[in-house]
Amino acid sequence: MEKQYLLHMITPEKNLSAFDVNMAFDAGWNAMPYLGVEIDEVATIVQDTIFSRGPKSLKRTGIFIGGRDMHMAMDMFNAAKEAMVPPFEISILTDPSGAFTTSAAMVATVSHQLKIRHDEDLKGQNVLVLGGTGPVGASAAVLAAKLGAKVTILGRAVDKANLVAEFCNTRYGTVVEGVKGDANDHVDELIQDADLIFATAKAGIQVLNEQQVAAAGKLKIAADLNAVPPAGIAGISLHDNGVALKGSKSNAVGIGPLAIGNIKYQTQQGLLIKMYSMGVPLYFHFEDAFEVAMEIVS
């Protein structure tokens, strides 16, 4: 008799994301929760998992790592990989609070619009990440920088923005000028040179108003994740996907949260299905999510 598909879902938080649990079930997995897990407990969970099933059943077994901290999730991801004992290996996906698949979808949709509208890629583009000190903003910044963009993360406090930027550069090896940090107080100055703007602040917070949109004289594309009024970037509607940005004097286009969310959903679902359908152990984090998102938008 074939074994059930079991996805062992690990989080350092007191609860799993209900979104992730639904996604796992819809992708064909039975979800097994592990809550409040510390990093030194990950190896034991993994090895109890791999040694309790034979090689054939391990193809129906996976690890999902969630949480709210991008860097902790990556530490747990690496700890889980190191705990594998070939040929006892299973697939792993990390997506803390959906940050990796969300940032992948955002960068992919922007990259696609940049290509079809300007025949350009992210290399050399000035990218401004507003509300960028959280996991979505930080992972989007790393992705854009790895593709050659010059990225500035903005947050309420310059010290925190600098700390997040420094951690992104040293931890994930971003390239070119890497990621810089700055404070929201300097947004009026920085938007004048921005080619691309990512709004990744908390829901219900507007980070760019009508006057600032008009002042962004080089802006090509603005992407907004905020689905709760008011819009994170003034002039962007929920379903916009390459729609002319209201008030833009540079003929910029906007990408709204539901357009990004559609790609995010397909990306996470695709990764969850690949974990058991490919027949070999696979290890997925934000860069892998970006590859899948690019396949979807293209």
Structure description:
The chain has 298 residues and is of the alpha/beta class. It folds into 2 domains: 6-98 and 263-297, Methylene-tetrahydromethanopterin dehydrogenase, N-terminal domain (Rossmann fold, 3-Layer(aba) Sandwich); 102-260, Rossmann fold (3-Layer(aba) Sandwich), CATH 3.40.50. Helix content is 42%, strand content 17%. The chain is built from 11 helices and 12 strands. The strands form 2 sheets. The chain has a 7-stranded mixed sheet. A 5-stranded parallel sheet has the order 2-1-3-4-12, with helices on both faces. Helix 5 crosses helix 6 (135-146), helix 5 (99-118) crosses helix 10 and helix 6 (135-146) crosses helix 7 (158-172). The chain is elongated and about 60 Å long. The mean pLDDT is 92.
| Distance N to C terminus | 40 Å
Instruction: Count the domains.
Output: 2
Mean pLDDT: 92
**Structural class assignment:** alpha/beta
Number of helices: 11
Q: CATH class of the largest domain, anyone?
A: Alpha Beta
Q: In total, how many beta strands? A: 12
Shape: elongated
Percent helix range:
40-55%
CATH superfamily of the largest domain: NAD(P)-binding Rossmann-like Domain
CATH architect. name of the largest domain: 3-Layer(aba) Sandwich
CATH topology of the largest domain: Rossmann fold
Main beta sheet: 7 strands, mixed
Poorly predicted regions are none
Q: Per DSSP, what share of the residues sits in E-state strands of 2 or more residues?
A: 15-25%
* Major sheet: arrangement of strands: 7-6-5-8-9-11-10
